[in-house]
Amino acid sequence: MRHQPPALEEHEPSLECHIMGLELAGEVVEIGADFTNGQPGDRVVIETVMGDGVCEYCRMQCYNVCEHLYDVRTRYVSQAYCEYVVGPAEKFYKLPDHLSFEQAFLIDTFSVSLHAQHLSGLGTNNRVAVIGAGTIGLAQMMLAQASGADVVIMSEIQLIPSASSPCTASVPSREWCWTSSPRGG
Asked: pLDDT-derived band of residue 22, with 50, 70 and 90 as boundaries?
């Protein structure tokens, strides 16, 4: 699969093709003999949680706890900053024509958030607290609101206070600062 990797500011040969990547989408340029999920030219997204496929956890589709998870991910997904990526056919999913690559990058994020929401049993008028205002936390907040949650509280921990932070500049950069309001407000 070929995709446009983000530009690295400084060339680091020791890191080239070894930076763990997520949210990976691109165009199929070549297929192996056993690849039946598509053809060259297809726009695809790759599922980035890859186990060895043979252990007990993988057989239960619990790839995230495979003891070889990072070995397998390093072999495939760590190439996310390269121009070409090779991966197992069963982890490639064809994108619908109306979905851009920029939108496809969020599929994994929203999948994780939706899975957590299903496990929680979240329903209309429930109260929700989301701890962490990173990408997954923001997706979780959006899904909770869209699902009819009555109260959504988002908190974040900041390592280094900024001028716009409710934390004071007197907090040393190694200490944690807790805020109970979403960014920007």
From this structure: low
